[in-house]
Each structure stands twice: as structure tokens, then as C-alpha cells.
Design goal:
about 0% strand; 9 helices
Length: about 190
């Protein structure tokens, strides 16, 4: 919820990751120059600064593409997909998340898998692909793929499933999944 602070922090980091450092991992699992832009873009999306988010995410995608680094690509494309969803571009978001899912599976980027599946399911629901969206999300929950990404990723899956059911007009199931999502956040202290 402290998006202004997050934005200021990430903006302050950007000049430190230019030049030679742009293409160095510096001991991180992602290229910091990409990760900072992904998190900055995500925070900007949350406050509605979509054009600024797109600029930073596009720069991050350029770096990740040049480095051909799967984890960095997945991370920045996750945020880019959310930008597209926020703009109402569900078909483009679906394609972005589907490509990120392929990268996750082909390159064993397990920690990002639950978040990607959650938002791919949500994008499909928003794109009118309701049976496919619900099946994807329910299958992911049944397989408990959230175990690879941390407790908060269970929330992502439950929240996305609740929203998919809501779009489908299945209000009882939507409310059930929303209640489960809330319970996860309360148990994990992330509410």
C-alpha cells in the first residue's frame, strides 16, 4: 500500500543500474535493472500512472530480451501483462501471460508460476474465456502449485478464481473463493 514510497525507492535505484550495471546480475536471480523496472512499473500501475509504467516496463523488457534471461523476462512480462489488464486489453494480456507461462515451464522458473497462472486465468476470464479460465485456476489450486511461490501466491490464485467466477455470474463460488483468499491473507499476516 505504500506505493509512493516504493516508486521513490525504485526511481532512486534506476541511475545506479545504468550503463555497465544494466547488464550485470550482481548476484541476484533477476537482472536488477529489470527487477527494479518491473517493481516500479507495478507500483505505477497501482496508482494509475499507466504511461509511466509502460515506459519503465518496456525498458525492462528490452534489457531482459537482450540478455535472454528467462527469470527476468517472466518478471517484467508479469508486470506488463498486468498493465495490459488494467488498460482493458484482455486478449493482449492473455498472450503476454501465456508466453510467460511457457517461459516458466520451459526454464523451471517455479517461483513465478503461481502468479503467472493466476493472472493468466484472470486475463482469460476478462477475455470471455470463462470455462478455460476457471479450469486453469481450479486445476492450479487442486495441484497446490502455490507451494512453489510462497503463501501469498495462494491468495493470487484464490483471488483470480473468485474474480473469474464473478465474471461468469457464479456468485456463490465467487464469494467462497474470496473468503478463502481473505483467510489466507489473515493466516499469513499479509492483510
Amino acid at each position: 500500500g505504500e506505493f509512493d514510497r516504493a516508486i521513490a525507492t525504485h526511481e532512486a535505484l534506476l541511475p545506479l543500474l545504468d550503463g555497465e550495471r544494466e547488464r550485470k546480475r550482481l548476484g541476484s536471480v533477476v537482472y536488477p535493472s529489470v527487477g527494479v523496472r518491473a517493481f516500479l512499473g507495478s507500483s505505477l500501475i497501482h496508482i494509475g500512472a499507466l504511461d509511466a509504467a509502460e515506459r519503465h516496463l518496456t525498458a525492462g523488457r528490452r534489457i531482459a530480451d537482450a540478455m535472454r534471461h528467462p527469470y527476468s523476462l517472466v518478471m517484467v512480462n508479469y508486470s506488463f501483462g498486468n498493465l495490459l489488464l488494467r488498460r482493458g486489453e484482455a486478449a493482449a494480456a492473455t498472450a503476454t501471460f501465456a508466453a510467460a507461462l511457457t517461459l516458466c515451464r520451459d526454464n523451471e522458473v517455479h517461483t513465478m508460476l503461481p502468479a503467472i497462472v493466476a493472472d493468466l486465468g484472470l486475463a482469460r476470464a476478462m477475455n470471455g474465456e470463462l470455462p478455460a479460465a476457471i479450469a486453469l485456476l481450479e486445476d492450479a489450486l487442486a495441484q497446490r502449485i502455490y507451494r512453489t511461490g510462497g503463501k501469498y501466491t495462494q491468495f493470487f490464485l484464490l483471488h483470480a478464481a473468485g474474480r473469474a467466477y464473478l465474471v461468469a455470474g457464479r456468485l456463490v463460488e465467487a464469494l467462497e473463493r474470496a473468503g478463502e483468499a481473505e483467510a489466507v491473507t489473515l493466516r499469513s499476516g499479509e492483510h
